[in-house]
Amino acid sequence: MAEQQKTIHLIITRQDGPDGTPYKQEFKIPYRPNMNIISCLMEIQRNPVTVDGKEVAPIVWEMNCLEEVCGACSMVINGKPRQSCTALVDKLEQPIRLEPMNTFPINRDLAVDRSRMFDALKRVKAWIPIDGTHDLGPGPRMPEVDRQWAYELSRCMTCGVCLEACPNVNDKSPFIGAFAISQVRLFNEHPTGKMNAEERLEGLMGEGGITDCGNSQNCVQSCPKGIPLTTSIASMNRATTVYSIKNFFRS
Question: Which residues form a coiled coil (predicted)?
């Protein structure tokens, strides 16, 4: 009976639109064991009433897979950018403070526009092009030792947490972020992707590229997938330096 009387206290930063002014609202919802932040937001959506009894519009946020794969539900929880689907209430200090990631333009409430991440992937050509649409048969096989570390890099879900944690990503800097640098390493080491390696390095060497990294290492500490981002940055630093030297002597 005592457990049924427990509540969860949330303080949520809201914004009614891209040009709106941020404001905070407080909610208290019934406690249930094993709740995550998504289930809390769904409870508020079912009954959007603040602690002072005011009925408000439901909270806007994004979610999809609910198993830390899609990256859509990123937000700042108690001051730390992370995935809300794996943020368990029982492991969080109350009141739980939810804020949108400030690195990205805010659409509404906790939902942000991550377009800059997808634009960065286009810039560095983070894909393996194919020659036509016909079946070319199986590609070259990767050695198991290479496949293992490549798999770690491939787990990136474009969640934006590394950009939110990075002090070099802000409205005064066009830095593309550690995730894009790591994806260049992934595709440049792929047996087929190597043929476009120089194009990807060119994408890293322009304005906002790898030289804008301040090596704070916040990215690798905050990455929910534990991707070795700083290792990728070091590897691509060397690759771009070698490529620059080669270009110098070509000219």
Answer: none
- The mean-pLDDT minimum among 18-27, 118-127, 132-141, 237-246 falls in 132-141
Candidates 228, 208, 197; CA nearest to 125 is: 197
Question: Do residues 80 and 99 make contact, with C-beta atoms less than 8 angstroms apart?
Answer: no
Buried b / exposed e over 169-188, threshold 16 CB at 10 Å, is: beeeeebbbbbbbbbbbbbb
How many angstroms separate the CA atoms of 229 and 181, rounded? 8
Q: Which of 86-90, 151-155, 169-173, 237-241 bottoms out in mean pLDDT, i.e. has the lowest?
A: 169-173
Closest by alpha carbon to 230, among 209, 214, 241, 207?
214
CATH number given to 115-250 = 1.10.1060.10
pTM of the model: 0.90
Phi, psi dihedral angles at 30 (to 5 degrees): -65, 140
DSSP 8-state secondary structure symbol assigned to residue 211: G
Task: Delimit the domains of the chain by residue range.
Answer: 3-112, 115-250
Q: What is the CATH number of domain 3-112?
A: 3.10.20.30
Closest CA to 177 of 75, 104, 105: 104
* Count of all residues that appear for the chain in the document: 251
* 221-231: pLDDT as tens digits: 999 999 999 99
Contact 213, 233 (CB under 8 A): yes
